[in-house]
């Protein structure tokens, strides 16, 4: 069986805390042998690639464009989709678990696609909190307090969903 693939989604213009969380998520995923999928650009994407590659992890970037000059360091391979944000669906559907770090409109679309997909654990660290019109939390994901908790939850539930 191939290794678990975890998509890590987040904004290209992120906070320092988001970058730190993403770097730690990448490092922890690499330590377990999971394959990291990300958007392959700047911000959270670059931070997770840096963290995973620093531990010798496999990191696949799924780019929205075909511009080789816009990829971040730390990627093992790149898929150039030239599909704009439609690539978010490819990223989410290729994953056995999704970890969302921080929030932006593109990140919200990834979060929504992952939750709509069903059957795949979705974990958020910072960023979006989705509520309905009455202010009640909308189920479908887990909010982690930190990177370690996010990785632990994602891997524990991904391994169940793959068996």
Give the SSE layout.
Layout: E1 5-9, H1 16-32, E2 35-38, H2 44-54, E3 59-63, E4 77-80, H3 87-93, E5 97-101, H4 105-117, E6 122-125, E7 142-143, H5 147-162
Helix pairs in contact: 1-2, 1-5, 3-4
Would you mind describing this structure in some detail?
The protein contains 5 helices and 7 strands. The chain has a single domain, classed as 3-Layer(aba) Sandwich (Rossmann fold). A 7-stranded parallel beta sheet has the order 4-3-2-1-5-6-7, sandwiched between helices. With 163 residues, the protein is of the alpha/beta class. Helix 1 runs parallel beside helix 2, helix 1 crosses helix 5 (147-162) and helix 3 (87-93) crosses helix 4. Strand 5, helix 4 (105-117) and strand 6 form a beta-alpha-beta unit.
Task: Please give a handful of descriptors for the protein shown.
7 strands; seven-stranded parallel beta sheet; alpha/beta; 163 residues
Strand content: 15-25%
Q: Report Rg.
A: 14 Å
By CATH, the topology is Rossmann fold
User: What is the count of helical runs?
Assistant: 5
Number of strands: 7
Distance between the termini: 10 Å
Largest sheet, spatial ordering of strands: 4-3-2-1-5-6-7
Order of helices and strands: EHEHEEHEHEEH
Q: What's the main sheet like?
A: 7 strands, parallel
**Portion in helices:** 25-40%
Low-confidence stretches: none
Silhouette: globular
> Which CATH architecture would you pick?
3-Layer(aba) Sandwich
Secondary structure category = alpha/beta
How many domains? The number is 1
Instruction: Assign the CATH class.
Output: Alpha Beta
Task: Determine the mean pLDDT.
Answer: 92
């Amino acid at each position: 069986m191939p290794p678990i693939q975890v998509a890590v989604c987040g904004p290209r213009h992120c906070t320092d805390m988001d970058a730190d969380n993403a770097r730690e998520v990448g490092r922890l995923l690499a330590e377990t042998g999971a394959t990291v999928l990300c958007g392959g650009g700047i911000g959270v994407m670059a931070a997770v690639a840096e963290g995973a590659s620093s531990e010798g992890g496999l990191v696949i970037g799924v780019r929205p464009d075909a511009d080789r000059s816009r990829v971040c360091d730390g990627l093992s391979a790149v898929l150039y989709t030239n599909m704009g944000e439609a690539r978010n669906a490819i990223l989410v559907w290729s994953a056995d678990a999704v970890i969302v770090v921080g929030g932006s409109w593109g990140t919200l679309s990834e979060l929504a696609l992952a939750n709509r997909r069903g059957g795949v654990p979705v974990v958020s660290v910072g960023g979006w909190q989705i509520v309905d019109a009455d202010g009640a939390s909308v189920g479908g994901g887990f909010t982690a307090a930190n990177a370690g908790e996010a990785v632990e939850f994602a891997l524990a539930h991904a391994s169940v969903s793959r068996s």
